[in-house]
Amino acid sequence: MENEEKSLNFIEEIIEADIRSGKHDGRVLTRFPPEPNGYLHIGHAKSIVLNFGLAKKYNGKTNLRFDDTNPVTEETEYVESIKNDIKWLGFEWAEELYTSDYFETLYAYAVKLIEKGVAYVDDSSPEEIAASKGTPTEPGKPTPYRDRTVEENLLLFEEMRSGIYLDGAKVLRAKIDLASPNMHLRDPLIYRIKHANHHRTGDKWCIYPMYDFAHGQSDSIENITHSICTLEFVPHRPLYDWFIEQLAIFPSKQYEFARLNLNYTVMSKRKLLQLVNEKYVEGWNDPRMPTISGLRRRGYTPVSIRNFCERIGVAKRENIIDLGLLEFCIREDLNKTAWRRMAVLNPVKLVITNYPEGKEETLIGENNPEVAGGEGERSIPFSRELWIEREDFMENPPKKFFRLAPGLMVRLKHAYIIKCEEVVKDENGIITEIHCSYIPESKSGEDTSGIKVKGTIHWVSVSHAKTVEVRLYDRLFSVENPVAMENFKASINPDSLEIIENAYVEPDLLHAEPGKGYQFIRKGYFTLDTKSTSSKPVFNRTVTLRDTWAKEIQKG
RNA sequence: UGCCCGAUAGUAUAAUGGUAGUACAACUGAUUUUGGUUCAGUUAGUCUAGGUUCGAACCCUGGUCGGGCAACCA
After folding, report:
1. Residue A41 CB: number of other CB atoms within 10 A?
2. Fewest beta carbons within 10 Å, which of A50, A80, A254, A256?
3. ipTM value
């Protein structure tokens, strides 16, 4: 097993080639560079697992750098959530850094470009500048300010910093090539005026570098060896390389991979922010959100998310991953770790007519059948009247129905085999009680009855049942690719959340621990919601169990 | 109709000039006190046309299709 050759992704191949050739003396330093303007989502997890994973694999390190060059959208709240999510995922950064730490250096870089005659202050309006850039098929034209002298540019740039100009009055542009086939090289803006309070530098600055002027140089300042980002930055790379060359600074190299897309969800921070602001969800950590905090609240574990990110692979091809793979990963983890408990979500009463009234028994159930020894056990009270799942009974069952129906037998999990004798209905024909007889010799663990039954169902003793709220989640969108819609919000799944106010659970579930996953036997994996209280426990369904019977039914 | 990136089973991802493999999904069957788990098996793929080569998913050329590229966003 250990000598199994795992295939490398294209970035690993590049790194291994670099190590072999002695580039950077074999040093590997990556970075994860979020902008603190929103919460991290599963797509960021892919990048985090990649960047931190690469560093770990090649004995390197990873910096956390906040790309905070736009004070208007950035907040400390986001910084804190991002740090928290990365730690929760199980990663440690080498250094916590901020692009705003480099503002003075970046300013000096800009001055250097001006001195070299390859940057100029432009007084044109945004519209004029856009027009001056031409189109992909037509070259741009210079604005009237392109040929200002170095001295004039130096003075004006200093004045921009001093605060005497209004927002938008002037910008600093790199002087590259207005006819370049790469639009990003047509004299890109590198500094703009924003009289805005920055979450870290306060009012110290009123000019801020553009992302394109900050990102590559920040990598360079930190001596990042492999700067990994998503595909949309491919056309920016020549610009970063140009800055590095002009400034003669450490040559970080950028490599681009395809971002994660998941079906039945949206993955852009802008769209997620809309869902939050327009109250389609409870917040960034709503369990239906693809955010790390949402997945955490939903009951996803760090290991399941890491496994998912490793399984989806890294390449340059556009991709849409099936949500089913994420679900597979969490089931795989929880199956091995979640303690089993019984809960009835949609109850109907079952009476065992030959079980003495007033009699109670304490039955035993192992916590986890996947582990030798079961990780201990808990007691389950049993009595004459039970709640069972309404869907576990059918008056006129189809073939291969292994549950309860008139005349049929099933086993009550951890208890006895019962036989359905009679059905009681109200005046509307709704079933109110199911009467059964039980077989005393069939008790779990000491069954001498010799009877074999096909089905086993879960149950909760009526007099011992505890009432909890259960929240059932489904995919947030009802179409595979909401972004392809004219209005993605129109395809929100109206049934993405079903709240069951009164579900019955076995008493031991009152001792459920926050952050721990429980399998409600035959129903799915659940975890305590962050809003749960001891007086009113609330469970979120993380994911259902695989259900081949439901598939069978659907097929007809 | 300028430039850039890409194209391998339903979805992802390997094979780096020499037997197209893996995972998820789907389907069979076995086991099972969860219609869960586990196990065994089945189905299913190199966008296209040329070229180079003993041999091409891989190299070259043309085409097709998909995605991206112009924000005082990142």
Report:
1. 25
2. A80
3. 0.96
Q: Which domains does chain A have, with CATH numbers?
A: 2-257 (3.40.50.620), 269-339+468-555 (2.40.240.10), 346-458 (2.40.240.10)
* Nearest alpha carbon to residue A49 among A80, A89, A88, A9: A89
A539, A482, A44, A68: which is closest to A275 by C-alpha? A482
Strands A347-352 and A385-389: antiparallel
Give the integer Cα–Cα distance in Å for A307 and A42.
12
Span A65-116, pLDDT tens digits? 999 999 999 999 999 999 999 999 999 999 999 999 999 999 999 999 999 9
Provide the β-strand partners of residue A497.
Answer: A473
CA neighbor of A521 nearest in space, from A321, A378, A357:
A378
The answer to whether the C-beta of A124 is closer than 7 A to strand B is: yes
| N-term to C-term CA, chain A | 43
Query: Which A residues 269-328 have CB within 7 Å of strand B?
Result: 311-322, 324-325, 328
A480 is catalytic: no
* Count of C-beta atoms within a 10 Å radius of residue A141: 12
**How many Å does it take to go from CA A162 to C1' B54?**
74
Radius of gyration of chain A (CA): 31
Spatial distance from the CA of A52 to the C1' of B56 (Å):
37
CA distance readout (Å), A356 to A272, A410, A437, A471? 57, 20, 11, 36
This prediction's pTM = 0.96
